[in-house]
């Protein structure tokens, strides 16, 4: 898995990098098919913004969050991403069960 963390008008310190990595590890633990993750941290006037694009096989999941505090924006972003990953994983498992249920055994 490739992890790319970019800062726009913000310096990505080792502390921020470690914080983002630890938060994303929780999300990636739920889902093994992650190929790459791109995180963009930015500042726009008084808003701290965190965006993530998660590339999985067959789909890209995108989440963004803004807050007054960068760490709060990262927390909110990972919570949203976790919900999206679980929803996508549930759809994938339901799709696999549906295809098995519709197969007609040959006589």
Question: Could you characterize what this model shows?
Answer:
The chain is an alpha+beta fold and 107 residues long. It has one domain: Double Stranded RNA Binding Domain (2-Layer Sandwich). The chain contains two helices and four strands, in the order βαβββα. A four-stranded mixed β-sheet has the order 1-2-3-4, covered by helices on one side. Helix 1 links the parallel strand 1 and strand 2. Helix 1 packs parallel to helix 2. It is elongated and about 60 Å long.
Per the CATH scheme, the topology name is Double Stranded RNA Binding Domain
| Residue-averaged pLDDT | 87
How many domains? The number is 1
Describe the strand arrangement of the main beta sheet, using strand numbers. Answer: 1-2-3-4
CATH hierarchy class name: Alpha Beta
Order of H and E elements: EHEEEH
CATH architecture: 2-Layer Sandwich
- Global outline: elongated
Evaluate the radius of gyration.
Answer: 17 Å
| N- and C-termini, Cα separation | 45 Å
Main beta-sheet strand count, sense and barrel state: 4 strands, mixed
Q: Roughly how much helix do the residues carry, as a percent range?
A: 40-55%
| Beta content | 25-35%
Structural class: alpha+beta
- The CATH homologous superfamily is named Ribosome hibernation promotion factor-like
- Low-confidence parts: none
Specify the number of helices. Answer: 2
Tally of strands: 4
